[in-house]
Amino acid sequence: MGITSLFQSLDKLALNHYATYADVGIYTSAMAFVSLFAVIQSTFNIVWVPKAVQHYEKCPEDKGYYKTAFNIISVVMFAVGITLILFKDFFALLLGGQYRDAEYIMPFLIFHPIMYTISETTVCGIDFMKKSKMHVFIASGACLTNFLGNSFLVPIIGCRGAALSTGVSYIVFFILRTVIAEKVFPVRFNLLKLFIVTIEVFIYAAYNTFYEFGVLNVVFAIICYLTLYTLYRDTIKWCYRYIKNSIVVSAYFKGRRK
């Protein structure tokens, strides 16, 4: 917990050391902006963890359950993340003038809720196998990445460097969680698709961090959406059928009650 707290605070500490209080304020505004996205992360974590434990206790050999959850939450988180980046100017305008400067810092910060939430579906094996000490190594690796990133980038590009370092460190956090969990509880997630989408969204975030909104912004967003749909077509169709059937069933029982 101590290492994780340091990991999550390094960006603010680096800005406080290398930059100005104005930069800290802008960065804090950007984080408040992203916290709207973090609601999905918190909700998923509350629902997922007890469900995963319950499933493991009933069917310890059924690993398809975790793959399905991994694919679904990957689609949801990246779809919301791409949308948030695409409409960051609109959201900043809607929330107020104090968020105008923060909109260029936000794109990389979305990797915090994205990678953390997805990693919750891949890290279960560590807890199932009672290897909790591995969390110390995971947090330490991510913390070291964040420290080095902030040390090099914040003196050069300020807030944007802190956001970039945070985004990269959470990608490392996801990789460490997933690789170590796979060692103790192999599930064989399809990580290639995830990394293709991650690289595309990372490039899209970089463009939005250093360039103003324009036609290319929309083009890049469409490319990201198309890639996400192409790679996760089956998952998206499954979700569509599930939601459709749920609506039909709900309408049926509502009609019966009347």
Describe the protein's topology.
Layout: H1 2-18, H2 21-58, H3 64-86, H4 88-95, H5 106-109, H6 111-122, H7 124-128, H8 134-157, H9 159-184, H10 191-210, H11 215-231, H12 233-257
Helix pairs in contact: 1-8, 1-9, 2-3, 2-6, 3-6, 3-10, 3-11, 6-9, 8-9, 10-11
Could you please describe the fold and organization of this structure?
By secondary structure, the chain is mostly helical. The protein is globular, with a radius of gyration of 20 Å. It has helices spanning 2-18, 21-58, 64-86, 88-95, 106-109, 111-122, 124-128, 134-157, 159-184, 191-210, 215-231, 233-257.
Number of H/I helices? 12
Ranges where pLDDT stays below 50 over 5 or more residues in a row are: none
Task: Output the radius of gyration.
Answer: 20 Å
Distance between the termini: 52 Å
The biggest beta sheet reads: none
Topology order in helix (H) and strand (E) letters:
HHHHHHHHHHHH
Number of strands: 0
Principal-axes shape call:
globular
Overall SS class: mainly alpha
Mean pLDDT figure = 82
SS strand fraction: under 5%
How much helix is in the residues?
over 70%
